[in-house]
Known about the structure:
This protein folds into 2 domains: about 5-120, Rossmann fold; about 140-330, P-loop containing nucleotide triphosphate hydrolases (Rossmann fold). Helix 1 (about 20-25) packs parallel to helix 6 (about 175-180), helix 3 runs parallel beside helix 4 (about 105-115) and helix 7 (about 195-205) crosses helix 8 (about 225-235). The strands form 3 sheets. A 6-stranded parallel β-sheet has the order 7-8-6-9-12-13, with helices on both faces. The chain contains 11 helices and 13 strands. Helix 3 (about 80-85) links the parallel strand 3 (about 60-65) and strand 4 (about 90-95). The chain is α/β, with parallel strands linked by helices. The longest helix is centred in the C-terminal third of the chain and has 15 residues, at about 295-310. Helix content is about 35%, strand content about 20%. Pfam families: DUF1611, DUF1611_N. It comes from Steroidobacter flavus.
Amino acid sequence: MLSPYLLFLGDVVELAAAKTAAGILQWRPEFCVGQIRVAGGTVDLGLPEMTPQVAAQKGAKTMIIGIANAGGFIPDSWIPTLVAALEAGLDLAAGMHTRLADLPIIRDTAKRLGRTLHDVRQPTQTFPPGNGRKRPGLRLLTVGTDCAVGKKYAALAIEKSMRARGMKADFRATGQTGIFISGRGVAVDSVVADFISGAAEWLSPANEPDHWDVIEGQGTLFHPAYAGVTLGLIHGSQPDALVVCHEPVRRQLVGFDHYPVADLEECIAATTRAARLTNPKARAVGVAINTSRMTEAQIEDSIAQIERQTGLPCRDPIRHGMDRIVDHIQTIWPA
């Protein structure tokens, strides 16, 4: 899709619901010219507030729906703004389960005006089941103790650190936000369950022996709704290295407060066991923590405790970067 972008924040009131827009802004700020909300929306990313017409005048080419709501649907209250964007000369992009092209007024307006609709959550190719055969190259998968805990940010920060020191590395997106950031990938939560492992194999194909595919994780093995996609990714990715993502102050799963967050050490052990089905040498190499709701004292205490308990380096990918974890990786897989 063409940049720059106008980020559509809809009517959401929690930043977590606008994580797609926030992720694009975090990693591709040069692509973002403004934001737009509808009645009731209170999330503010600090970008200039713009109508589609003003955004087009400022050079925007695409309006991206930056929302990741439960169910991935597009409510009727958004439709007038989406149509206005098309009429202002912008293409539309979305990572929703509801396809833009399945909404008659959106489809017909785009066709009449010659605009392009990008539904990145809808895979354009088919995948076979995973075959489990080991392939050349090195792979790192971010996993977690919950959803929305920082797996994408950790993977992007690891890729950044690897590339900065001359390592061969590519971020592999498995969700809509990652696809918007990197321009490629597959939204695995839209892949039929039997083929998730095959999609992960396709996403991280055979490569040079010293090349790292840094694969964005999804869900957690300890989630009652999303453990299936996590397991498929683990088996298809065949990770050599696992980085476990965790929010130390989170006690219940997001949106599932009747389930506690898994114990970190139990998560490391269970995830490593699962990974060793398709890669017997899989091992955890670090812990990435989300400190967005923590004080400096809490952060220091948590890092010290986690490193003492796990024996692994621990860092926040946004606050600290991932250099220390990549240092550890290089001691295990020297160039």
